[in-house]
Structures are given as structure tokens and as C-alpha cells.
Amino acid sequence: MLNLLIAGVGGQGTVLGARLLGLAALEKGLKLRGSETIGMAQRGGSVVSHLRLGEGAHSPLIPLGQADLLLAFEPAEALRALPFLRAGGHMLVADRAVQPAGMPHYDVPAVLACLKRRRPGSFFLGGDEVLARVGGRGLNVAMLGAAAALGLLPFGLAELETALRRRLAPHTIESNLRALHLGAKMAKEGGNKDGNDQ
């Protein structure tokens, strides 16, 4: 069983990312349980999705300290969700901050440094590069591509491509496929893995 937690900010496509992963898991024949917290999504607040893939899950929620993989679409949300990640678990973080409107900005380099200290070996995807190359809201899908390329998921890009084609509006499929493969390419090339400065 894989316990997978996705953390982000309202508007980043956290819920869509979870649904695409769920569809890919079903395409692979895996059992699936999951839950989402989306009440703050419209206000730019935290959005968290729990996915439990495979046999043995009796609840849709991942207990603290039991997540095998944390996909964080935003650095502060990675730090907030870190207590869910088990010892030896994997973390993939988009390094681009979403600063809340009307709120004081937080120290992004300090948060990233804290994450690197607390979870050495984690992978940090260059969010600005993704958005510059695919535009729009492709960061969530690029994160899925990176996770697949790093071997952190129990399925690959083929199942994610199928999920994209089944779930998304036809006019958005090509741009999302580009984002998926860009994330995979960045992961294979080493991206911004902990310890490697950009």
C-alpha cells in the first residue's frame, strides 16, 4: 500500500492532481481510498488530499507519520504537512511560493532550507521554470510527471496520460501532456534535488 499526501494552496490544482492520480491507480488495477479538505480552496488556503493506494487501507485518511510520499505544490504547505511524512518517506516539493494576498510574505529561502535540513534527499522541482515553459496552471501535472519519473508512484507516465485524456477538457489535454513530460524530464535530469544548487 502507498500512502500519498498532496498539499497545496487553493487554485493550484491540488484536487485535480489527486483525481488524476486516483484514475491512474484505477487504470493500473489498484484499490483506492481517499479524502480531500477543500473548504479553504476559494480563499487561497490550504488544500490537502489523502490517497491510499493498494490493499490494507481501512480509512481514507493517512495517520500522522504514515505518509510514504508527500507531494507539495507549495513550500509552506510542504512544511505544514511534514508531520504526516513517515521516517524514510519521500518528499517532492514545487519550490515556487504562493504568497497569500493581503498577508505578509514569508521567507521562502528559509522555508526551503528548513525542508532540506529536515528531509535530506528530497526533490525540489523548479516551479518558475515549469510555468515559464508550459504556462497556465501546469505545475500540478508537472509534479505528477516528476513523481512518476522518479519511481515514486506504483504506475508510470502511460497511466497518467490515460487519466489526463479521460478527465480533462479536450482543449487542455495537449498543454497538460507537455507539463507532464516536462516534469518527468526535469526529474530525470536531476532538477533541483536537495544539495544541488540551481
The overall pLDDT average reads 89
Total strands: the figure is: 6
Spatial sequence of strands, sheet with the most strands? 2-3-1-4-5-6
Structural class: alpha/beta
Indicate the low-confidence ranges by residue numbers. Answer: none
CATH topology: Pyruvate-ferredoxin Oxidoreductase, domain 3
Succession of helices and strands = EHEEEHEHEHHHH
User: Total domains, how many?
Assistant: 1
Helix content: 40-55%
The gyration radius over C-alpha positions equals 15 Å
The best one-word shape is globular
The portion of residues forming beta strands comes to: 15-25%
Helix count, DSSP H or I runs of 4 or more residues: 7
Major sheet details? 6 strands, mixed
**The CATH homology group name:** Pyruvate-ferredoxin oxidoreductase, PFOR, domain III
Query: Can you tell me the CATH architecture?
Result: 3-Layer(aba) Sandwich
